[in-house]
Amino acid sequence: MAVSIELVKELRERTGAGIKECKEILVQVDGNINQAIEILRAKGIEAAGKKSSREAKEGLVGVYVHYGARVAGLVELNCETDFVARTEEFGLLANTLAQHVVALNPRFLSVDEVTDELVAESGQLREKFIEEHVLLAQPFVKEPSRTIEEKLKEAIAKLGENIVIRRFVRYEVGA
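Predicted structure:
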């Protein structure tokens, strides 16, 4: 099946994949853009795993102050180069993550920080506790079908560098 250049362009804009790869995948899936996105997403997650060993020392701090200035969130988001750190997409990701921190108030960055004692004290099942309190395991506030970890992997695939949330903090007046 021949695919239009407009469809290739749309897929490239939505995923950040190369033109040749977009065209090949669209041909493979008979022009079904949603199926093509899923294939590219899966490939991106695989590529992200390979990049996770690379050191991320550059980056920026994402900031979100909620209306009324009573709650704010800060997220240190790191990448490998200052070139990527200065991109609009990276800055938007950092600020969106800070907004997520304000909205869902995670207590931990990763599952490694959660002890069995904490889970037992909460009275919740481990899986539910992790989903509610671990940033990387939480459903992304703007797209609940994906976790924060999945959003990071998508960004790694799109930007081509390892991306790491180094730390975060949420401030609330009177808390």
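Summary: The chain has a mean pLDDT of 88.
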